[in-house]
Specification:
By secondary structure, the protein is mainly alpha-helical. The chain contains two helices and no strands.
Length: 62
Amino acid sequence: MPFAITSTASSLEAEAKQASAALKKLSNQEGRVTTAYVGEVMHLERYKGEIEKLSLRRPQLE
C-alpha cells in the first residue's frame, strides 16, 4: 500500500500546483481588466461585469 499513498500524495500535490497556477492566471486576468479600465480602454459597466465574472471563478479554485 505505500505506492497507493505515494500516488495519492503525488496527485494531491499536482492538483495543488494546478490550482495555484489557475489562481495566478485569474489574478493576472483581473490585473489586465483593471489596467484596461484605468487606461480608459474599458467602460465602468463592462469593467464591473468582467470583474464579477472573474470573482465568481475564484471560489471554485480555492
